[in-house]
Amino acid sequence: MNSENFVLKREVAEAVRENRAVVALESTIISHGMPYPQNVETALRVEEAIRECGAVPATIAAIGGVIRVGLSPEEIEYIGKRGPEAVKCSRRDLPFVVGKKLDGAMTVASTMICAKRAGIKVFATGGIGGVHRGAETTMDISADLDELARTDVTVVCAGVKSILDIGLTLEYLETKGVAVLCYGTDTMPAFYTAKSPYAAPFRVDTVEEIASFMKARDELELGCGTVVANPVPEEYSMPEDVINAAIGQALREASEAGIKGKATTPFLLARIKDITGGDSLESNIQLVLNNARLASRIALEYVKKR
Ligand code: PSU
Ligand code: MN
Known about the structure:
This protein has 13 helices and eleven strands. It has helices at 10-17, 28-31, 38-52, 73-82, 94-99, 108-118, 135-138, 143-150, 166-175, 207-219, 240-256, 264-275, 279-304; strands at residues 6-8, 22-25, 56-63, 66-69, 87-89, 104-106, 122-124, 154-157, 179-183, 202-204, 226-229. Strand 5, helix 5 (94-99) and strand 6 (104-106) form a beta-alpha-beta unit. The chain has one domain (6-305): Indigoidine synthase domain (Indigoidine synthase fold). Strands 1, 2, 3, 4, 5, 6, 7, 8, 9, 10 and 11 form an eleven-stranded mixed β-sheet that branches. The longest helix is centred in the last third of the chain and has 26 residues, at 279-304. With 306 residues, the protein is α/β, with parallel strands linked by helices. Bound molecules: pseudouridine-5'-monophosphate and manganese (II) ion. Manganese (II) ion binds at residues 140, 142, 262, 264.
């Protein structure tokens, strides 16, 4: 699976070959999702949390057009410093980044593609992309959702941010045949808040149930991915009125400034962080760590079943 443009770190390649637990991690969250230096600190803490659980982390990014599955701390620092100058790289952008030998930060969609190619089945992040509010006229639907429909990787996230239309995102995933397993909760988590007004498509309470679901999905050869939605821990969740006010303001500003396309999500995330004075950043960091730990436990359980 290694090639000139696609290189697995030795530790990751060995773990995959020996059927040990590996957790993939995206890099757009580092370059576009958080400011430097908190982005690098968080990325390193997330890798550490995965190791403490007994799994191997594999942060994925393109550096000079070479896709690297598993980064060194120096490479994580490099991508973190490049920040938004690295190309936000989704499925569409992958050949552009590789062909032009650019630095690319992987979204959920492209991380799934690379994880699958590397033989990694579990991936942890903060939030997935989704159907944007107003998508009925803009058609702005994240490529993450179609990737989930076609690539069999399990994505552990804290649900869907209400910068998006949570209800339409759930409808779209249902249409595409993607299950959303809500961990220990009856409602769909909304990233900064543990609950939302939307019912959980499925509730699961143990990692064993999740690994069994994945195994059944494989055996049925459905070829699709799965979302595990893990609520933000209570102590780090944001007050609903505070976060909703910030989201409302960010959405108005995006519309006034004419922000469109792939710039939309990074713009909204950065504005929410500024409007909430950094409280949302702490919540974001903690929920990513929480997802990394759950993803590790799922990966450990899943390899036992293979
Ligand atoms: N949502 C977040 N944080 C993020 C992203 C989404 O809460 O960092 C990033 C992820 O990399 C996700 C991407 O895959 O944004 C989705 O972008 P778009 O909506 O342009 O597909
Ligand atoms: Mn979009």
